[in-house]
Design a protein that fits this description.
eight-stranded parallel barrel; about 25% helix; 20 strands; single chain
């Protein structure tokens, strides 16, 4: 692309570079590619530049496949990394398919058995693996080079168009298992980085259109924390993003999108937040995307935080408040009882004003970014030395507690407490109102050795160790039964007919308690609460007792419904497997006592079938 090289005017044309097509559906990266300032390849010239591949997206036999459009109320999301899920030798996947789309197909029965209804795939747009510290590789994939092409490194096929068909094979196979596919998409920045980065596409085509620039036009604004920010509400970028989303729905049959740092997309060309961002409304109102799940990470790296205030009527949101408040409640921080109670009810203080469905809040305790669940209960501080940045990277605010010992421990009491804390978190997540999201391997206590920012760790630190499935079979069983019971009462729902969060809460008879009935303690010193929820239309009454105190507590129970309708125990995280959860609500033994002892740092749920 020939033109003036005048960075002071925002122009960075350079006819020495070979640029890829921003709308290309496939990309190849030849051996010898290097990240060089202002260049698109290595010293060998065009031979080492990335290249677009001509593709006809209609040349694939879908065999009748369509996006599933599963109601949100029936959705349990599992966030996973395509490569990391099967790359470990213990996966049993042949080496030529380990870490690929094809390898993931072989593990679909595992997801199905666990009860997962949607996988959220970490970025699998084609990305630059060299966008990482020297000697490392970019593992997470938040470094896109194309918004239309699937990442070639996740394909077992070597032919130029192999990744397209292999990814579509994966989607088709997941759909046959009744599992939706949600893509983690990055529209807030690209792998071209700041002014010191390479130029392989957007910068060399129309730098001043694709990127937000400082007033002097030479430097790039950095609301993404990665060196540059896409000019999302420029007409050129708006059209490209909309066409990208349409491509993934129409030609690749994906069911939804999770938008990384979605608040960046609400900024105008000066970087200011817009009340009615054109791009976000384009997405909201696009008929091709109707019924597609849209999930926003409603914040950015420059401090814009829009959880509860993100635009539109169709977007769900990653609820960062759920993560933070539940973590702090479970580790017994003072003053967290009122917040934890609100998170359990779908966060009406955050979402109630919108009169939206109860599933607007995507609840999670862990995700790819931060500690795993096992590390959350094993480390007080991050241990990111392997990243090569002297432990400076990654968040210092993790709301974690190591249960008395930093890192791995064979002490029986420490091990038991950590197992209980993991059960507490999983039970809180999967019994709360909202859309739950699990992070890969949390169901089997996967650890990252205390690394809370393993974006450049393509190794045992991040890979799913399948031997854990046997080592922590009890924890996996606990999760499986939680999901089974959650979904058993939600079948046959239709999104447009669902009540709003406020209507749902108003339709339930909700009673708050402390250790004594109808005497909740909302003070800063409190570490426990109980709630009774009666749902007449589903014929169930639940009584939840949450004890984050370091001593056992005796909770007074509401009066049972008579001889034929006693309280029965469903969950008690103090108990060891298999008594920690019953497989079926109807098989639980009836309880006759007036009080129920909930062990220290434990959660118990009782249920009653209504006549």
């Amino acid at each position: 692309m020939h033109g003036p090289w005048d960075p002071a005017r925002g122009l960075r044309f350079d006819g020495r570079n070979l640029l890829i097509d921003p709308y290309g559906l496939a990309v190849v990266t030849p051996p010898g590619y290097q990240r060089r300032q202002g260049r698109s390849g290595g010293d060998e010239g065009f031979a080492t530049c990335m290249k677009s591949v001509v593709a006809d997206p209609s040349r694939y036999d879908w065999q009748g496949d369509r996006p599933l459009k599963r109601p949100r109320r029936e959705t349990v999301i599992y966030e996973l990394h395509v490569r990391g899920f099967t790359r470990h030798p213990s996966s049993g996947v042949p080496a030529e398919r380990a870490g690929t789309y094809a390898g993931l197909i072989e593990k679909i029965p595992y997801l199905k058995d666990l009860g997962i209804t949607a996988v959220e795939l970490l970025p699998m747009f084609a990305y630059d693996t060299l966008d990482a510290p020297p000697g490392k590789s970019n593992y997470w994939g938040y470094a896109p080079i194309s918004l239309f092409a699937p990442h070639r490194g996740y394909s077992s096929r070597k032919d130029p168009l192999g990744p397209l068909d292999e990814f579509r094979d994966l989607v088709k196979a997941l759909h046959r298992a009744d599992i939706e596919v949600i893509l983690d998409v990055v529209f807030n920045h690209t792998a071209e980085g700041d002014e010191r980065g390479p130029s392989f596409c957007f910068r060399g085509l129309a730098n001043e259109a694709y990127y937000l620039l400082d007033p002097d036009n030479f430097l790039y604004t950095n609301y993404s924390g990665t060196g540059n920010t896409l000019n999302a509400n420029n007409p050129v970028v708006r059209r490209m993003v909309r066409h990208s989303l349409r491509h993934w729905v129409e030609h690749m049959h994906v069911d939804g999108f999770r938008f990384d740092l979605a608040s960046v997309l609400a900024r105008d060309e000066t970087g200011q937040p817009m009340p009615l961002p054109p791009l976000l409304w384009d997405i909201e109102t696009d008929p091709v995307l109707a019924g597609t799940k849209l999930i926003a990470e409603a914040w950015d790296a420059a401090g814009l935080y829009q959880v509860g205030s993100f635009i539109g009527d169709s977007w769900q949101e990653w609820n960062g408040r759920f993560r933070d408040d539940v973590r702090r409640f479970l580790k017994s921080d003072p003053g967290m009882v009122p917040q934890a109670a609100l998170r359990a009810l779908g966060s009406p203080d955050i979402y109630g004003h919108k009169e939206r469905e109860a599933e607007q809040s995507v609840n999670f305790i862990t995700c790819h970014d931060g500690f795993t669940l096992a590390d959350l209960v094993s480390y007080n501080t991050k241990h990111n030395q392997a990243n090569g940045e002297d432990n400076r990277d990654g968040s210092n605010d993790n709301a974690s507690w190591n249960c008395g010992v930093e890192g791995p421990s064979n002490h029986p009491a420490v091990f038991a407490l950590r197992q209980r804390q993991m059960r507490n978190g999983l039970a809180f997540l999967l019994t709360s109102i909202g859309t739950p999201m699990l992070s890969m391997g949390d169901e089997v206590a996967r650890s990252q050795q205390g690394n809370n920012n393993p974006y450049c760790q393509d190794n045992d630190i991040t890979w799913f160790d399948w031997d854990l499935c046997m080592q922590h079979a009890d924890l996996r069983r606990f999760v499986k039964h939680l999901i089974t019971q959650r979904l058993s009462r939600r079948q046959g729902s239709v999104d447009h007919a669902l009540p709003s969060l406020n209507e749902l809460l108003q339709s339930r008879q909700i009673e708050w308690h402390g250790v004594n009935l109808h005497q909740p303690d909302w003070s800063a010193d409190s570490r426990s609460f109980a709630i009774t929820v009666t749902g007449e239309e589903i014929g169930i009454r639940l009584h939840v007792m949450a004890n984050a105190y370091w001593e056992p507590l005796d909770f007074e129970l509401p009066t049972a419904g008579g001889i034929g309708n006693p309280w029965r125990r469903w969950i008690d995280t103090w108990l060891e497997s298999p008594d920690d959860i019953t497989e079926s609500w109807g098989t639980s033994l009836p309880l006759t006592m007036s009080h129920y002892r909930v062990g220290s740092r434990s959660l118990a749920v009782l249920l009653m079938q209504l006549p």
